[in-house]
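Re: the 285-residue chain
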Amino acid sequence: MGLPMAQHLLAMQPAAELRVFDLDESRRFEASSAGLNVIDSVLELNKALALAECVCSSLPHDGALLSVGEWVAEHAKAGALFLDTSTVSMQASAQVAELMSKRGVDYLRVTVSGNNHMAQEAKLTIMCSGPRTRFESAKPIFDRWGSKHFYLGEGEQSRLMKLVVNLLIVQTSAMLAEGLTLGQKGGLDWAQMWQVISESAVGSPIIKAKSQQLGKPLDERDFTPTFTVPQMLKDLSLMLDAGRALHVPLMQTAMTEQWMHAAIAHGDAQEDYATVIKVIERMSQ
C-alpha cells in the first residue's frame, strides 16, 4: 500500500520535496511511472536522509523494519521524524524505538487498517503511537490517507491494535467459511446467503466488502486478492507470538493459521485470504 499512500502525499506542498526509494528496481520504475520523484542510488538516498525532516516507510516484515531502522538511525539528522506504517511485532518496533532515541530521532508507529483499494481511495483508518506532539503535527499527512485517526499511547500500542483488528478480520473469514459451508450443504442458495448475512446483525463492513467479491453465484465468485494467504499468514504469526508473550490463548486463531496452510497446500497461495472458505468446503465433501 506504500505506493498509493506516497501518491496521496504529492498533493501536499511543496510536492517536489517528496522523494521515494525502493531496493527493488521494478518498484522504483512503478513509482516513477506514477509521477513520484524517485531516488536511484543508495548514495543519493543517504544524502536525502541527512536532509529530511520526515522519513516514512512501509515495509513487509520485522527484518526489513530493523534493517531500515538501523539505516535511518545512521543517516537521519537529530530532530527528524521517522514514521513507519508497517505491520510488525511489538518487539522489533521497540528495538527501532531504542535506535531512534539514541540518535535523537522521533518515532511514530503508524499502523493502518484497510486494503489496497482503500489506500487508493484515501479511506484508511490510522492508528498511531509515539510522541503525542508528533502525532498532532503529522495530522496533515494522516489526512491524506484517511479521515479516521486514533492516538493510542507513547509506545507500541498501535502495533498491538493493528494485530487485534487483523485478528478480527481473518476470523471473520473463518467464521464465514464454516457458516456458508453449513448453509450450502443444507441446500441454501450461495448468493442469497450473502445477501441475508450482509443485511443481518452480523453485516459488518468487512462482510459487506467480501460480499462484493464472493456473493455471486458459485461459478462466478472472485478470490482476486486484496491480501494474499502468505500475507495473512505473516500477520497470524505476529498475532500468535503476541498471544504467547501476553499469555492470552488464541486457540481459534491458531486453527485459522492451519487452515491457511491448507489453502497453500491446495495451490491457493496467491488468492485472497478468504479462500479459507474453500478449505472448509473441501473438508466437507
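The chain has two domains: 2-155, 161-283.
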